């Protein structure tokens, strides 16, 4: 045929310009695209060969080769797949749907260079990614079922030329003349790394070949090179497609490390096969430790997605709910089109179904793990906080998530936590609600005077000391039909109805007796507290501070202030233990002596709950005076 230089259609020229000039940093994906095309070409030849035997009469060993010539600075990707004739070359590498370019240009403009690999996949222009690293590309190809070979050549700016060529075997070679600043791709290890990273599970062997073997190559070097080049760089088997019983733990661990760069290995491995509405395979991992960025909103999260063995992308967050963002792994589905883009995944029905199946699987794995005592605690210590978010954000699974939560309690040993169902099981028969208290530190919570009556009545109290716990109280609402009640807020009373009644009348009596004293205290502490009253929650302590039922705890207020949030100042209520001798004693005092004692009482209530006092110097002075007496 006559070699004639042809200009690229305007759209292609423009698209090439976009590809090459985009500031995209990961030029390396060109190799994924070329290997993926090669694999497709083999797939097609194999498929057609099933019915047209003459196409595969040469009985090919299906394979892909990456041959590099360091001297000439070329890389050649060769397959023995279907091949192309002149018309195919013209159609496949000379034109693209113009509507496609327009959309491509639009998308690239909107999303910026970093979105290029997705866009390349989405718009089916992967071949042109070669121009990110090469200034000249030559394709030599011979189509199965024909006798003639052709070549397509382009330096991008000057259009392309299709002409006759020489080629013995069927298939296609794509030869890249690498740009001077892209010679890293001539290195075996760099290439092997890329193959591992992007194309490990391509179903055909991908081998490396050095073209310009030095004449004076040492024997040892030759031997190790030949060994390297004889072996495929990819494993070819998708681990998630093999039955669990056939895979060694170390193999899973190696894959996990490769996937996550977490060299500790996984805590739990969950292979999983989805059947029914959508068919997919998944290989999920729970890491041993939380990464530092688990609470950074921009952190990359999500699973890797393969469609029919072809890597689509990692960090696909649509495959996992937020509260499972610590889970790592891979999903492989054949129910998705190969050219899916992230944007399309956003509201894809198949993805939604996979996400829901994956969520259910992880939940049931955690429910199994729950039976394993200490091992579950290990998990919960690492990821409990993230899990708790699910109660707030995922109403569909909130009830199941609640059953996975553990809390320290006033009664449990330090460091121990209990499940809500165990807390409920241990409730005295007259306890109706689930009690909790919020504090920054477990020690503070345990010492809180607000727990005293609960303790005396045999009621345990959950200690909410994780910063998310207080946020969550609203979403927790109830468990097993029981409300969550803060023992440091509102009115709480303990014991049987009779006991409550008796206590109420005793309280009223005490309040009557202490009325003048209560009025004095209220006047003196007017700036600090909203009210002063007789307490129902104290046993040993003389006094404590409590909030309205819906008010924020002091721990929460401090945290919000630390985060520079506006927090409405809300005065709390000072509760006095009417039965306490100290209260009675102070009530009997008069003048400055009583004033100082009231001030000390108030400060001691703050100290008892772990809150700072306003005037430390004054406090110590008053205390010193008292001790001198
Ligand atoms: P896509 O692969 O998404 O269609 P590309 O730009 O990567 O887009 O490739 C364009 C077309 O060129 C392919 O659809 C295919 O028909 C053809 N092609 C590319 N590489 C090869 C190859 N190695 N063997 C046969 N055909 C190929």
Describe this structure in words.
This protein has 629 residues and is of the alpha+beta class. The chain has four domains: 4-230, 2-Layer Sandwich (Heat Shock Protein 90); 239-378, Ribosomal Protein S5, domain 2, CATH 3.30.230; 404-486, 3-Layer(aba) Sandwich (Rossmann fold); 497-628, Heat shock protein 90, C-terminal domain (Four Helix Bundle (Hemerythrin (Met), subunit A), Up-down Bundle). The chain has 21 helices and 22 strands. An eight-stranded mixed β-sheet has the order 1-6-5-4-7-3-2-8. A five-stranded mixed β-sheet has the order 9-10-13-11-12. The longest helix has 28 residues, at 497-524. 36% of the residues are buried. Adenosine-5'-diphosphate binds next to helix 2 and helix 3.
Topology:
Elements lengths: L3 E3 L3 H12 L7 H23 L12 E6 L4 E6 L6 H9 L3 H14 L4 H8 L10 E9 L6 E8 L2 E7 L5 E8 L9 H12 L6 E5 L8 H12 L18 H12 L5 E9 L5 E8 L15 E5 L2 E7 L11 E6 L8 H5 L2 H22 L3 H20 L4 H5 L3 E2 L10 E2 H6 L8 E5 L3 H6 L4 H5 L5 E3 L2 H10 L1 E2 L2 E5 L10 H28 L4 E6 L8 E4 L7 H9 L9 E5 L4 H8 L2 H18 L7 H13 L1
Parallel strand pairs: 2-8, 11-13, 16-17, 16-19, 20-22
Antiparallel strand pairs: 1-6, 2-3, 3-7, 4-5, 4-7, 5-6, 9-10, 10-13, 11-12, 14-15, 18-19, 21-22
Helix pairs in contact: 1-4, 2-6, 4-5, 11-16
The structure holds adenosine-5'-diphosphate (ADP).
């Amino acid at each position: 045929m006559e070699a004639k230089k042809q200009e690229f259609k305007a759209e292609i020229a423009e698209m090439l310009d976009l590809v090459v000039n985009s500031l995209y940093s990961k030029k390396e994906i060109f190799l994924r695209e070329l290997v993926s095309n090669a694999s497709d070409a083999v797939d097609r030849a194999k498929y057609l060969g099933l019915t047209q035997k003459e196409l595969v009469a040469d009985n090919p060993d299906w394979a892909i080769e990456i041959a590099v010539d360091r001297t000439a600075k070329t890389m050649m990707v060769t397959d023995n797949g279907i091949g192309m004739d002149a018309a195919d070359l013209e159609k496949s590498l000379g034109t693209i749907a113009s509507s496609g370019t327009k959309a491509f240009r639009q998308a690239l403009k909107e999303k910026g260079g970093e979105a290029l690999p997705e866009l390349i996949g989405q718009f089916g222009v992967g071949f042109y990614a070669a121009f990110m690293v090469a200034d000249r590309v030559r394709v030599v190809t011979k189509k199965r079922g024909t006798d003639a070979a052709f070549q397509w050549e382009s330096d991008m700016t000057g259009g392309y030329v299709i002409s006759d060529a020489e080629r013995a075997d069927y298939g296609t070679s794509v030869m890249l003349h690498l740009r001077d600043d892209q010679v890293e791709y001539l290195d075996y290890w760099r290439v092997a790394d890329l193959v591992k990273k992007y194309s490990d599970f391509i179903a055909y062997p991908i081998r490396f070949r050095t073209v310009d073997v030095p004449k004076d190559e040492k024997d040892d070097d030759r031997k190790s090179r030949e060994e390297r080049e004889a072996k495929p760089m990819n494993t070819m088997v998708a681990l998630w497609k093999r039955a669990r019983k056939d895979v060694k733990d170390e193999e899973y661990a190696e894959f996990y490390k490769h996937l996550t760069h977490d060299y500790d290995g996984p805590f739990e491995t969950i292979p999983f096969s989805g059947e029914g509405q959508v068919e997919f395979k998944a290989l999920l991992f729970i890491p041993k430790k939380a990464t530092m960025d688990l609470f950074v909103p921009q952190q990359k999260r999500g699973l890797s997605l393969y469609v029919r063995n072809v890597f689509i992308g990692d960090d696909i967050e649509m495959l996992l709910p937020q509260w499972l963002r610590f889970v790592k792994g891979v999903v492989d589905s054949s129910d998705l089109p190969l050219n899916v883009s992230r944007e399309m995944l956003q509201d894809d029905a198949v993805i939604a179904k996979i996400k829901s199946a994956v969520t259910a699987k992880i939940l049931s794995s955690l429910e199994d793990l729950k039976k394993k005592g200490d091992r579950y605690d290990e998990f919960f210590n690492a990821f409990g906080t993230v899990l708790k978010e699910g109660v707030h954000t995922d109403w569909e699974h909130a009830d199941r998530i609640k059953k996975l939560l553990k809390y320290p309690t006033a009664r449990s040993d330090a460091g121990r936590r209990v499940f809500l169902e165990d807390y409920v099981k241990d409730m005295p028969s007259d306890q109706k609600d689930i009690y909790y208290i919020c504090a920054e530190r477990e020690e503070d919570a345990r010492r809180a005077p607000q727990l005293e009556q609960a303790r005396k009545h045999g009621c345990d109290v959950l200690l909410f000391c994780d910063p998310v716990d207080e946020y969550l109280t609203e979403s927790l609402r109830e468990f097993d039909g029981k409300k969550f009640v803060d023992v440091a807020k509102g009115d709480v009373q303990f014991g049987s109805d009779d006991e409550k009644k008796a206590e109420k009348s005793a309280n009223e009596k005490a309040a009557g007796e202490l009325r003048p004293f209560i009025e004095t205290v209220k006047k003196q502490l007017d700036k600090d507290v909203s009210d002063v009253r007789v307490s129902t929650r104290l046993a040993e302590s003389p006094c404590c501070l409590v909030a309205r039922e819906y008010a924020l705890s002091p721990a929460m207020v401090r945290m919000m202030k630390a985060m520079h949030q506006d927090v409405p100042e809300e005065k709390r209520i000072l509760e006095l233990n009417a039965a306490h001798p100290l209260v009675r004693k102070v009530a009997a005092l008069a003048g400055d002596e009583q004033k100082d004692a009231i001030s000390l009482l108030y400060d001691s209530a703050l100290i008892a709950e772990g809150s700072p006092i306003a005037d430390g110097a004054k406090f110590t002075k008053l205390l010193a005076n008292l001790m001198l007496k």
